[in-house]
């Protein structure tokens, strides 16, 4: 009965909202433990959408509630594991992340919201995962973490979680970021695979429609690494690869130039949305 | 093995109010039934007891057995008569004791 009532309320809210399309993003606001989260915002200049929506608005009410309470959020266990790693000495220099950066709540606040950044050494954009590897190899005398292994996702989730609620803001004026942005845009709009789909086919053209039982979002990346109900903690490049696999195309390697360009472009598409890491998604 | 436990207790309540307490601890809860790659049994290591006290008075107590999943989560209700501190303990098979506490103010 309660479910029916809730369904009624949602229906009423939807009809009272912008348009009578059942699959519109829900009219709801997110606050995580008192931190307000921006789930809708005006798009930056040159963006194909007028308004940006966090993927949170496209999920069922039960899934949305898991995000609301950091206690209920299963992704927070990974964040705690990341905190333990932050304080663990790694490599021959006898240093942990905390040796230099001390309290992550202070030193990492807002940091995750500004990646990917330009890395002058490699002349490429760098994301949080690669920045961790750079610290490990150049400062700590340790081996770089292989993709999704050795706590890479947990540490990334911990670092990004320190920016919870802060808006995503990228600086495209650094180095060659603008040309990587252009390259990422090409990747985004290029149809690939036997199904001949581009990112834009689902996340732009068909945004808000149902693809079987799944509600297509704008494909925003503000909540990564995200906790997916079907696969647990999921890194951004794992998600990119999964999507590309589903178009039945060759999967580019994680952190390859194609995916770094795509990360640069897709992150820009979410400018102004709050960092939600670790978000809970389908 | 286990990380810092997470607890959620309201900061304040009115006298006699029934509040909800949530706790979660990260722990493998190795049941002792599994075997490693070479076929040797992995020794059991679980949290076998959880208690919650309020100013020395028992509020909630629970024995845990090997069938309990990893990262045990408890949610229970308590009535608070006055301001004080909830103390939580988790006992590990290896003898470690994990502790946490949370104050509550009764207005």
Automatic annotation (TrEMBL), chain A:
InterPro entries: Cyt_c-like_dom, Cyt_c-like_dom_sf, SoxA. It is found in: Periplasm. It catalyses: S-sulfanyl-L-cysteinyl-[SoxY protein] + thiosulfate + 2 Fe(III)-[cytochrome c] = S-(2-sulfodisulfanyl)-L-cysteinyl-[SoxY protein] + 2 Fe(II)-[cytochrome c] + 2 H(+); L-cysteinyl-[SoxY protein] + thiosulfate + 2 Fe(III)-[cytochrome c] = S-sulfosulfanyl-L-cysteinyl-[SoxY protein] + 2 Fe(II)-[cytochrome c] + 2 H(+). Residues 81-168 form the Cytochrome c domain. Keywords: Electron transport, Heme, Iron, Metal-binding, Periplasm, Signal, Transferase, Transport. Residues 1-23 form the signal peptide. It is an enzyme of class 2 (transferase). Gene3D superfamilies: Cytochrome c-like domain. Its EC number is 2.8.5.2. It comes from the Bacteria. Transmembrane segments: none annotated. The keyword Transport applies. The keyword Hydrolase does not apply. Its main location: periplasm. Belongs to the SoxA family. Heterodimer of SoxA and SoxX. This is SoxAX cytochrome complex subunit A. It comes from Hoeflea alexandrii. The lineage of its organism: Bacteria, Pseudomonadati, Pseudomonadota, Alphaproteobacteria, Hyphomicrobiales.
Automatic annotation (TrEMBL), chain B:
Signal peptide: none annotated. Residues 7-102 form the Sulphur oxidation protein SoxZ domain. It holds the Pfam family SoxZ. NCBIfam families: SoxZ_true (TIGR04490). This is Thiosulfate oxidation carrier complex protein SoxZ. It comes from Hoeflea alexandrii. The gene is soxZ.
């Amino acid at each position: 009965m309660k479910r029916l009532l809730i369904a009624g309320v949602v229906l009423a809210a939807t009809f009272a909202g912008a348009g009578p399309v059942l699959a519109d993003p829900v009219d709801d606001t997110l606050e995580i433990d008192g931190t307000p989260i921006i789930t809708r915002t005006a798009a930056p200049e040159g963006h194909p959408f007028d308004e940006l929506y966090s993927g949170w608005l496209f999920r069922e009410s039960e899934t949305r509630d898991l995000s609301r309470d950091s206690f209920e959020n299963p992704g927070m266990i990974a964040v705690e594991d990341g905190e333990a790693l932050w304080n663990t000495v790694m490599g021959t220099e006898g240093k942990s992340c905390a040796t230099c950066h001390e309290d992550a709540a202070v030193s990492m606040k807002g940091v995750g919201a500004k990646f990917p950044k330009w890395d002058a050494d490699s002349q490429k954009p760098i994301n949080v995962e690669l920045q961790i590897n750079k610290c490990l190899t150049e400062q700590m005398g340790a081996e770089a973490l292989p993709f999704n292994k050795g706590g890479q996702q947990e540490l990334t989730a911990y670092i990004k979680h320190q920016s919870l609620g802060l808006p995503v803001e990228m600086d495209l004026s650094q180095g060659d970021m603008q040309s990587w942005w252009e390259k990422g845009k090409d990747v985004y709009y290029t149809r690939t695979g036997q199904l001949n789909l581009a990112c834009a086919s689902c996340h732009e053209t068909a945004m808000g429609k149902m693809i079987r039982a799944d509600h297509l979002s704008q494909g925003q990346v503000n909540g990564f690494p995200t906790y997916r109900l079907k696969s647990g903690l999921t890194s951004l490049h794992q998600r990119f690869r999964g999507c590309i696999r589903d178009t039945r195309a060759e999967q580019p390697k994680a952190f390859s130039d194609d995916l770094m360009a795509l990360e640069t472009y897709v992150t820009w598409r979410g400018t102004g949305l709050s960092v939600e890491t670790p978000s809970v998604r389908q | 093995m286990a990380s810092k436990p997470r607890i959620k207790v309201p900061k304040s309540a009115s006298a006699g109010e029934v509040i909800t307490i949530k706790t979660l601890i990260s722990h493998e809860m190795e049941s002792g039934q599994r075997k490693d790659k070479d076929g040797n049994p992995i020794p059991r290591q679980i949290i076998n007891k959880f208690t919650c006290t309020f100013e020395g008075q028992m509020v909630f107590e629970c024995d845990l057995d090997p069938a309990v999943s990893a990262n045990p989560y408890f949610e229970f209700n308590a009535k608070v008569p006055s301001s004080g501190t909830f103390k939580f303990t988790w006992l590990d098979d290896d003898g470690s004791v994990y502790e946490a506490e949370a104050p509550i103010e009764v207005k």
